[in-house]
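Quick entry between incubations.
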Amino acid sequence: MIEVVNISKSFNGQKVLKDISAVFEPGKIGMVIGKSGSGKTVLLKTIIGLHTPELGEILFDKREFTRGGIKFKRQIRQEIGMVFQGGALFTSSTVEDNIKFPLELFTNMSKLEMQKRVDFCLDRVNLHNANHSFPAEISGGMQKRVSIARAIALNPKYLFCDEPNSGLDPQTAILIDRLIKEITIEYNTTTIVNTHDMNSVMEVGDTIYFIHEGQRWWKGGREDIFNSDNKELNEFVFASDLYKKIKAAN
Amino acid sequence: MGTVFTKPVRTSIFFRRTLEEIEQIGVDSIWIVSIVSVFMGAVLTLQVAINFEAPYIPQYLIGLSARDTMILEFSSTIICLILAGKVGSNIASEIGTMRITEQIDALEIMGVNSANYLILPKVIAALVTFPLLNILSIFLGILGGYLVSYLTGVVAVYDYVYGLHYVFVPFYVTYSLIKICVFSVIITSVSSFQGYFTVGGALEVGKSSTKAVVYSIILILLFNLILTQLLLT
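Done. Structure below.
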């Protein structure tokens, strides 16, 4: 479980996160939604310690992460899997080497065991015959799958996904969403997904946090979205005619 | 800097990374160092020969001045100015691209000390290979002078070779090696720093690369002066 308690973060005197609190539970996908520039990515990067908040604390299974030393943070981070918006795959390494990387660094697996684990992870994300390709040689959807495969290589307790289906076609996006959902349930990971894609929210979101101007504006389940009377949330969710029609139908 | 010079997580991976960097930083620079050194030695010999036309100046001084100039200045300082352009820009753009494509963030989130993982093998690789390139450059520069004296006759080969042996000061080689070791650390650390702290996009990676070369060159020239004052006077 990840608990975010009253965190605030500023850049150059401008408050980007204002007193945000949230709880993300194991086996469930917590979604952080909001407009571009609302502070979603800053929130995610603050939770994983790439930014240090001025106020508040972050607890990973009751372990206070924010004020911990660098060694403690690195220890916790070995329990984290992260899927970046752009994949963040190591461009000079093959698909296989990208997934092997955390295994080589943090496990004592033999070469054979490592190969088995790589094959398992690639199989888990339905990616075949791409072991020896370089990231630049595969499609965006495949890169996202490799990124997920790398993220789950060490059986993480916490999975973070920053816009995991941005730049993907709707069919591939849904496949990626479902894959994240399956992994979350299968490994009981505490998953946090940053997105502004309402299809993702409606497909796999368990708990949804709506961030507006750096504040936690709304929290609820995906079914609650349609019944909310929160003006800013409604403007964000029902920006498209399709969702306006769905709301009218409800 | 403190985070760079810490114990690597896995020695075997660090060793492998260092070997890769030795190839990229050192082995891949052999051709440019060789070409520059041969031509520098050849031109140096020609220029000295032209300026030593007076009959009362012994011809063997051409060989001596070619040797000492290659050892004292060209094979350390000038070669490092060239390597600052080749290796420095390469390091800054490689690490800068990793920064803007979130690859460094990915390393950090995996619990890897990214500065140590990325920068230390480059510093070690440069420290190992640059002195070897220095020795190669001295040898090829002197060979370039020899070829010019043999092919053009601007100086008798015997005189040139006699000059190479005349009043040889072994400490000059030590001085040259000390300089190139310092310069190797300057090039790799300055370039890595510029790349590591790149903020923005592709344009900023280009700017970091340019800054890496400019700052490295300025620091090399400054330390060249300081080290010469400290070691030779």
